[in-house]
Amino acid sequence: MKGAVLYGPGDVRFEELDDPKILKPTDAIIQIVAACVCGSDLWDYRGINPVTQPTPMGHEYCGIVEEVGSAVKSVKPGQFVIGSFFASDNTCAICHDGYQSSCVHREFVGGAQATRLRVPLADGTLVATPDLPPDDLIPSLLTLSDVMGTGWFAADAANVKPGKTVVVVGDGAVGLCAVIAAKQMGAERIIIMSRNPARQKLAREFGATDIVPDRGDEGVARIKDLTDGLGAHSVLECVGTQEAMMQAIRSARPGGYVSYVGVPHGVELDGQELFFAHVHLHGGPAPVRRFLPEMIDLVWNRKINPGKVFDLRLPLDQVAEGYRAMSERRAIKALLIP
Amino acid sequence: MKGAVLYGPGDVRFEELDDPKILKPTDAIIQIVAACVCGSDLWDYRGINPVTQPTPMGHEYCGIVEEVGSAVKSVKPGQFVIGSFFASDNTCAICHDGYQSSCVHREFVGGAQATRLRVPLADGTLVATPDLPPDDLIPSLLTLSDVMGTGWFAADAANVKPGKTVVVVGDGAVGLCAVIAAKQMGAERIIIMSRNPARQKLAREFGATDIVPDRGDEGVARIKDLTDGLGAHSVLECVGTQEAMMQAIRSARPGGYVSYVGVPHGVELDGQELFFAHVHLHGGPAPVRRFLPEMIDLVWNRKINPGKVFDLRLPLDQVAEGYRAMSERRAIKALLIP
């Protein structure tokens, strides 16, 4: 089979790889129908996370089951499935509490920017669609694997509720998907912090009611202006930098909720500021598996269309261009079709 | 009147002060029936928070209303009342959400280690007992003003629920009161981290089921041993140091809850560690006012006895000895009777 391999900063190659095989009775092999490039892939691509050896890339996937191990019961060859970037048993105490991305048996699923993929713990990781999907639903179904699932977690972790005011910090694909989630959860007002006209437009289409282009202290002051001086009920930090995190914490009202769903890079929180901010803080790797059934239902019934975050569609063999376009911010998110 | 004034590190004096007066129509003047020394007073007493001018001390109080301003409706002279260390209007949006200690009109109530005290925003701050209390209830009623209210918030903010496993980090008066709160909220297992035999004994009396004397990595390992390797559902950090905070975060399971209720001193949180810990984090100055009615009811009906945290009882004019005894850890908490 063929797949994307990162050799070093800026150096993604599409090359011949060994075919995946069933290694454990709980594995499944799927034929990738669509994959994509994640914002978090760019930390590696840009050399911010050092790459020490050639690394098969990609962790967002959907596809057709080709083969399953002898212990797999819930999915079967021929089904269209979506899974999370963390494989989970979905039976341990942590999974039971809805934190499948911290499952005691979790395994990272890497190498999804390829024609085929081995998924461990298939029963606890993969969810099948009701039927084979029509082509136009495939981009949206793919987003559920990570970007939409992560946006959903951002809204869930920030306790978004009907009638509340929500701020989304970050207009990347996760932030845009977080707008979709906040809208679904009934938020009355959804403020996105964005300076990019194309992303602002998509945010409005997804349900944003206000746009704040200011950042830092000015951005915070603008949010206070929009919320009777109090701050928002829920603030969703979808970037992972110190500036974004502090902007999020300072934009929330006392007793409010701040979520953070992008891996923090260089973020340090001052205990005393956090104490007097009086906010709830929750985040981490999104437990996508928890939300998959509900999200699949919403996409299947065309209630949400997160596939619109893909503004670049490429054949999988042009994966390197997908990385370049996203790294240069020419594209929000690149869809890759084998 | 007379009251305690801090002049500098280790220098508390009991001296003649101006009588408090009604300054605003929303004020009340109360005659202090009992006051005490707070763990947080020790930050000033030890010079860790610099004292720049002679400062009247004390923020935990209960007493008899002497006089009220013309706008005060809910309390009247002759009633026995308890209030929080932050005065609140109890009507703003933040109070409505239960965060009275971040009320938009909040004022810190200082100078309670005295014979009389002015309490601002009396209607939103003070809660009267059903009747004049018997003497033996006074210590417990006094704790509701801060230490028990703060322990209650620790348990509430860490989402303590029936059947869950709770860890309390810190065996000071707040930690011990947090044990009482966790027990009231139905925790099945309450583990306190303590090395002090007298405090361990009191913790057991309050409802602790397990004692862990180890600290740091060893303490965390011991908690994991006691929780099937997963960590606790709820961890209540009742100290305010970096060591205690990290011990708390690392003792919680993914998806678990960590609260912190002591003003953090020198605490810095690494964003990436917090992200992968996958915990909920919430804390800040305890919104005591939210819990006062329920806590008064529990004390009044002798369901809880937090007054036991006072292991030193002094006449108010010996307040300096109260500070010394607590600073030297000879006493858990000093009760002061005018």
From TrEMBL, chains A, B:
Residues 8-336 form the Enoyl reductase (ER) domain. Gene3D superfamilies: Medium-chain alcohol dehydrogenases, catalytic domain, NAD(P)-binding Rossmann-like Domain. Coiled coil: none annotated. Keywords: Metal-binding, Oxidoreductase, Zinc. It holds the Pfam family ADH_zinc_N. It comes from the Bacteria. PROSITE patterns: ADH_ZINC. The keyword Oxidoreductase applies. GO terms for molecular function: oxidoreductase activity; zinc ion binding. InterPro entries: ADH-like_C (IPR013149), ADH-like_N (IPR013154), ADH_Zn_CS (IPR002328), ER (IPR020843), GroES-like_sf (IPR011032), NAD(P)-bd_dom_sf (IPR036291). Its cofactor is Zn(2+). Belongs to the zinc-containing alcohol dehydrogenase family. This is IMP dehydrogenase. It comes from Kyrpidia spormannii.
